[in-house]
Amino acid sequence: MSEAETAGRKPPEGPLTGVRVVELAGIGPGPFAAMLLADLGADVVRVDRPAGPGLAIDPAHDVTNRNKRSVIVDLKSPDGPARVLDLAERADALIEGYRPGVAERLGVGPEHCHARNPRLVYGRMTGWGQDGPLAQRAGHDIGYIALTGTLGMIGDPDAPPAVPANLLGDYAGGSLYLVVGILAALHHARATGTGQVVDAAIVDGTAHLSSMIHGMLAAGGWQDRRGTNLLDGGCPFYGTYETADGRYMAVGALEQRFYAAFMELLGIPDQAPARDDTARWAELRAAIAARFRSRTRDEWTAVFADSDACVAPVLSLREAPHHPHLAARSTFTGHGGITQPAPAPRFSATPTAVRTGPALPGADTETVARDWDVPRLAASSRNPQ
């Protein structure tokens, strides 16, 4: 339970209070984008399938469905599309993550929705986009980031590319770009009364994330192979090092003054080669690595505490919420017995909060039917097909 609820007050709802969003259930980046809108205060109604979620995770633990409400609609039933269109008519935005053409075949595509609600922002979340040779192919995060060149940038040059979970493609290149697109289109719709389709493709967003690197590549400041550049682990003072206890420290001492503090606290300022002599970077890396292996992670953390050396311990998911800085900022929060990241970013006038736990499939049908004035939705839940 949140602090506001514990104190008997209604929790804050955020800057998107009053915005209504329909989410057609999917997996990965679509639900995360809808969660972000819900965290910001939007009334997000997730339309779940009768068969349940697509991933084998207990819905009660799927925090990407927090702050939402859920109804169940079988889009393949005779009146399924009509019930979704009833919701779309009363919504500001809709999110779907089907392959191109599927929503149209189900009767809930952009034309169907805009016929009922011309102001609707119709957000489409896919990996390959709505057109192009691969548009109809299946895929996952790793394939999308592979084709954009970003996966090939990550990892040791003498090992296969390192897989960054599904954070880079699904969520950074996908969800966040969909949310930006929806917010921009909502602004346009409110100004003009006209909605539009937002085509958010993970390949587009992930490629866009690498804009600075492409600029450096064009300027000759970036080599097109991993582990040889300033920001990809090739630089010995921007990378990770193992400690005596098999854990790791992260070093980001790029600027000269930060590097000087780093070397002083590390204890080898007179033994290491000059940092700008790239021909001796391997030697510098070896010296730094040997020094880090002489103490445990926690010992090194204490050494670099309260300094501008730009060094931090590499924490696990379970350790992170207990770090003093993150704890002081309440970067993580607890709700319903689940420790999870708190909503971000933060707002001075319209604060956000985890208001409710994960929406359980179909649990909110009656209240959504009442609040959105969609009687057909409630009738169908009482008289299922």
Task: Kindly describe this structure.
With 385 residues, the protein is of the alpha/beta class. Helices cover 36% and strands 14% of the residues. It contains 15 helices and eleven strands. The strands form three sheets. The chain has a six-stranded parallel sheet, sandwiched between helices. Strand 7 and strand 8 form a beta hairpin. The longest helix is centred in the middle third of the chain and has 26 residues. The two termini are 37 Å apart. The N terminus is likely disordered.
Overview in brief:
With about 375 residues, the protein is an alpha/beta fold.
Spell out the key features of this protein.
385 residues; elongated; alpha/beta; disordered N terminus; 3-stranded antiparallel beta sheet; 14% strand; 6-stranded parallel beta sheet
